[in-house]
């Protein structure tokens, strides 16, 4: 009985020693984040969206969407495409891009002007999916390879997405070692099951966007020292602040043709 009483006292002391620890993190002024994508689909239609948010402190649970900006894209032929706000920081337009035209993005937010210029980049079509049921470290995971054929001698760059409810896979490709040949995007997510649907997207991009995404993806996979690790470097995109250069935005303005293939796991 004495031992039980002593144990209860110890448990009470341990419970009474719980303190709330406030972790002090460095903070900075919010920066504008611009995710601007103009996508020409294979059927000739387009999806033109600019999403605006701002950076936020680490422990904030809500994404700070920007709802009061002015967004336009202008072709070098003088045609202006206004973007209208929809929801969750997204601005959309009816712009259908054409090859050989320079498109200039302009975002006006808090009396500062952000700009970038891009051209439409072509892409190869996704062709078919190859499925293996004995992949991964366990030898029991489902592996998918989605194939496309790179055109000969073009020096092409690609951005690849595999999107599913179980998880996403992002990657970049440069045809230095597979020029003119068939190549594949690789998709491996744990717990993938028959009936799961995967949306594969392949974007034509330029070398600058390839390098931008390559560095971002490398940083996200190499950060292994916990959630408070400082990123090795701030990755700047192609958008500049015309009004105040040191208040540069994060994000990128991209104009791409996109090939999409939807696959249901067998």
Could you describe the 3D structure shown?
There is one protein chain. With 266 residues, the protein is mainly beta. The chain has a domain at 32-121 and 234-257: Immunoglobulin-like. The protein contains 2 helices and 15 strands. It has helices at residues 2-16, 207-222, and strands at 32-40, 46-54, 70-75, 80-85, 90-93, 103-109, 112-118, 126-135, 141-149, 157-164, 167-174, 182-188, 197-205, 240-241, 250-264. A hairpin with a 4-residue loop joins strand 4 and strand 5 (90-93). The relative contact order is 0.18.
Indicate the structural class: mainly beta
What's the overall geometry?
Answer: globular
Radius of gyration: 24 Å
Order of helices and strands: HEEEEEEEEEEEEEHEE
The end-to-end distance, rounded to whole angstroms, is 62 Å
Main β-sheet description:
12 strands, mixed
State the helix count: 2
Reconstruct the topology from this structure.
Layout: H1 2-16, E1 32-40, E2 46-54, E3 70-75, E4 80-85, E5 90-93, E6 103-109, E7 112-118, E8 126-135, E9 141-149, E10 157-164, E11 167-174, E12 182-188, E13 197-205, H2 207-222, E14 240-241, E15 250-264
Task: Please supply descriptive tags for the structure shown above.
266 residues; mainly beta; Immunoglobulin-like; 3-stranded antiparallel sheet; 2 helices; 44% strand; globular; disordered N terminus
């Amino acid at each position: 009985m004495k031992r039980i009483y002593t144990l209860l006292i110890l448990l009470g002391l341990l419970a009474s020693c719980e303190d709330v620890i406030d972790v002090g993190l460095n903070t900075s002024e919010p920066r504008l984040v611009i995710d601007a994508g103009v996508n020409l689909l294979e059927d000739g239609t387009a999806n033109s969206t600019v999403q605006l948010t701002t950076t936020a402190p680490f422990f904030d649970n809500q994404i700070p969407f920007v709802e009061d900006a002015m967004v336009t894209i202008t072709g070098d032929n003088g045609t202006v495409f206004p973007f209208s706000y929809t929801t969750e920081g997204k601005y959309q337009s009816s712009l259908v891009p054409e090859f050989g035209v320079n498109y200039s993005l302009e975002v006006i937010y808090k009396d500062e002007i952000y700009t970038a210029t891009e051209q439409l980049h072509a892409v190869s079509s996704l062709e078919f999916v190859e499925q293996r049921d004995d992949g991964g470290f366990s030898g029991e995971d489902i592996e998918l390879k989605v194939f496309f054929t790179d055109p000969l001698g073009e020096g092409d760059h690609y951005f690849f997405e595999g999107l599913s409810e179980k998880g996403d896979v992002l990657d970049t490709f440069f045809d230095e070692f597979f020029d003119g040949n068939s190549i594949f995007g690789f998709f491996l997510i744990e717990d993938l099951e028959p009936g799961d649907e995967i949306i594969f997207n392949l974007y034509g991009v330029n070398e600058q966007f390839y390098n931008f995404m390559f560095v971002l993806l490398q940083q996200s996979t190499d950060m292994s020292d916990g959630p408070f690790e400082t990123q090795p470097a701030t990755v700047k995109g192609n958008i500049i602040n015309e009004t105040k250069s040191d208040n540069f935005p994060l994000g990128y303005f991209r104009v791409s043709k996109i090939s999409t293939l939807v696959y249901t796991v067998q």
